[in-house]
Amino acid sequence: MIAGVSTACLYPKPLEESLYDLAVNGIPNVEIFINTHSELKKGFAHGAANLLKRFDVGCTSVHPFTSEMEAMMFFSDYERRIDDILEYYKLYFRFMNIVGADILVFHGGKPSSSLTAERYCERYSRLFRLGKENGVTVAVENVSRCKSASSSFIKEIKNMLGNEFAFVLDTKQAIRAGENPMSFLDAAGDKTCHVHISDSGEMGDCLLIGRGRFNFRQFFEKLGGYSPDCAVILELYRSGFKGISDLVTSCSTLTKMAEQYGKGKDI
Q1: CA separation for the pair 126, 160 (Å, rounded)
Q2: Could you give phi then psi for residue 91, rounded to 5 degrees?
Q3: What domains are defined for the chain?
Q4: Is the peptide bond before 12 cis (omega within 30 degrees of 0)?
Q5: Which of 76, 80, 85 is nearest to 131 (CA)?
Q6: Each residue of 26-45: pLDDT tens digit?
Q7: CA–CA distance, 79 with 144 (Å, rounded to integer)
Q8: CA-based nearest residue to 6, from 72, 57, 82, 79
Q9: What is the SS3 string spanning the chain?
Q10: Please, are residues 236 and 66 in contact by the beta-carbon 8 Å criterion?
Q11: Is 223 exposed, middle or buried (0-12, 13-18, 19+ CB in 10 A)?
Q12: Cα separation of 208 and 66, whole Å?
């Protein structure tokens, strides 16, 4: 189990500057948040890869800037849209192959009455299979404003999809949806391949590690039982910390927790 920090924490600083700031300050692993189309170009990807190699930083995952378009492009009745978006997502897969990332984060559809679990699975599985053809795992993230906000829905589609399913747990998004993050771990089980983590408590649901009351020991022990090789990535909003040193401190704390508690104990 490894810890890291998302470049999204430093938004709206340009991606390459965010990546450099994290790397030069010793962050061992990152998630790259692509912010716009030009950042998917091969030259930009190779520049990011060279920077990662220079500082010996691992890239665990990529988050697409097109997440808010996924409901329209993947789940509408207009068939040409999904053909086009599948072709477009090959640009993400190419970027990921260049920087060495394995996991693409997928928000998916909105909680509309027309979006059944069967339809969700049919559309998502097309992207999942395309990802696998390109050496990438496309993983559904629980997002409070999306269909994936419900742990019961995650359990349902996991059972329907079998081996064509992977899951990203976002602790703050679980809390915003009125759910316990542990419920999502139990729902997704060993299909949990990635985590966006932050502390939470009276001061908010997206805090630096140690600023809230989140039960990290319980969380890491449960996560270790289901998915001991998972990456745990700190994802905060820019208003949630003062400077890069805060991110470094929280990442260091997460690393120690992962080493201490994420031992793959039986659930």
Answers
A1: 14
A2: -65, -40
A3: 2-261 (3.20.20.150)
A4: yes
A5: 85
A6: 999 999 999 999 999 999 99
A7: 27
A8: 57
A9: CEEEEEHHHHCCCCHHHHHHHHHHCCCCEEEEECCCHHHHCHHHHHHHHHHHHHCCCEEEEEECCCHHHHHHHHHCCCHHHHHHHHHHHHHHHHHHHHHCCCEEEECCCCCCCCCCHHHHHHHHHHHHHHHHHCCCEEEEECCCCCHHHCHHHHHHHHHHHCCCCCEEEEHHHHHHCCCCHHHHHHHHHHHEEEEEECEEECCEEEECCCCCCCCHHHHHHHHHHHCCCCEEEECCCHHHCCCHHHHHHHHHHHHHHHHHHCCCCCC
A10: no
A11: buried
A12: 27
Residue with tokens 């995952």: 61
Place of tokens 């409070």: 144
Q: Which two tokens stand for residue 93?
A: 């897969």
Q: What is the pLDDT of residues 178-220, one digit of tens each?
A: 999 999 999 999 999 999 999 999 999 999 999 999 999 999 9
Q: What is the pTM of this model?
A: 0.96
Half-sphere exposure of 219 (CA within 13 A, CB side): 24
